[in-house]
User: Fold these one by one.
Assistant:
Number 1:
Amino acid sequence: MPQNPLHDPSSRSSAFIRFGALEVRITERGYAVFALRPFKRGELVLRVMGEITDEQDIYTIQIAPDQHLQPLPPAKFLNHSCNPNLGVKTSRDGIPDFYAFRAIASGDELTFDYAMTEYEIVASDVVCRCGAEQCRGHLGAWRTLPTAWRERYRGFVADYLLDMPL
Ligand SMILES: [Zn+2]
């Protein structure tokens, strides 16, 4: 059996898979996605592909009130941050693709705020360990996101959220 390099215990440095300008690595916090080149604010970083499902899980990205996307790697391994460097813009086919929310340097971990796509999170009281100075302390969602954050994320959240009741 060929060994999956993501599970190769013999070398930490070989534990990665490249996707063009991005790379998935295993870190102390689990899988994470890193940039291999700089991106400017507003630049497309990652198009998302995956299957549509009606059930939310820890990997899915919400695309409509009752629709979620089960993303393929590397999008599957994007971690949440309360101070993210990615945001989303909904494509013409209704899929939220990832764009640089602020300037990204080569080597930076790529993160987005799950509240940029999730209207509600089933386990929204899960403690957030993103480590950002402005960490909200728990994994929130759009419905309960403070107004100041919604303003800050303007233009970088899933389109369907703008039509949802608050
Ligand atoms: Zn946080």
Note: The domain at 5-163 is CATH 2.170.270.10 (Beta-clip-like).
Number 2:
Amino acid sequence: MNISGVAEIRELLELPAEEFSAITRQAGELGQSVHGGKISVRGMLGYTNICRCKCLYCGMRSPQKIPRYRLSEEEITDLAREGAASGVQRLFLIAGEDPGFQGQKLLSLVRKLREENLTLSLACGELEEDTFRQLSERHLPAALRGRCCNPARKMKIICI
Ligand code: SF4
């Protein structure tokens, strides 16, 4: 089954229990064949909670009166190194849609973290098309899923 949208996800979730179990069993076998019996350690790093958006379900939405922070590239890299030294193999970078951490700044951060041999996942909102292309073509080719939210202007990273 090729899952590419909500309809396929719904179809999967509505499968009879037996069929669903067969799929989860196959997924387990695939995971075992790829990773063996090893545990893969993942870390999550929220590098900024500043966000210009107002998604109603989200605690970081811009109207929320919460303390805001934005880590510097150096602080993030230090934390990533610490994580890597503790065994983290994949780092999940999470951020609000922070206008102060886009474009070249984001690309520079990703480039630096890739030098640490970390596998990265990103959830940082909407990006300019050029940034998105550079990320997906040069830095995180296998890690990005893109969706055009406005084909004329922007691409949006929606998952990892
Ligand atoms: S863009 Fe992300 S961080 Fe910002 S309000 Fe929406 S869900 Fe929250």
Note: Residues 42-153 form a domain with the Transcription Regulator spoIIAA fold (CATH 3.30.750).
